[in-house]
Amino acid sequence: MIKRSEIKKIVNDYSDVRIGVLGSHSALEVMDGAKDEGMQTVVYCQKGREITYKRFSRIA
């Protein structure tokens, strides 16, 4: 597993980092965890399925 400190070193070289996931049941968990860490998130899904993710205002 990659240490958090190693990830922070990499991320600090970028100005606009977001966690991107493909739409799935796991996507909700990943985005929720990313929000807990203060990250911005983006989900990619089929047209019409975005409603599922918009219902969760914390992660949308």
From TrEMBL:
Signal peptide: none annotated. Pfam families: DUF1246. Coiled coil: none annotated. GO terms for biological process: IMP biosynthetic process. Residues 19-58 form the IMP biosynthesis enzyme PurP N-terminal domain. PANTHER family: 5-FORMAMINOIMIDAZOLE-4-CARBOXAMIDE-1-(BETA)-D-RIBOFURANOSYL 5'-MONOPHOSPHATE SYNTHETASE, 5-FORMAMINOIMIDAZOLE-4-CARBOXAMIDE-1-(BETA)-D-RIBOFURANOSYL 5'-MONOPHOSPHATE SYNTHETASE-RELATED. This is IMP biosynthesis enzyme PurP N-terminal domain-containing protein. One of its GO terms (molecular function) is ATP binding. SUPFAM superfamilies: PreATP-grasp domain.
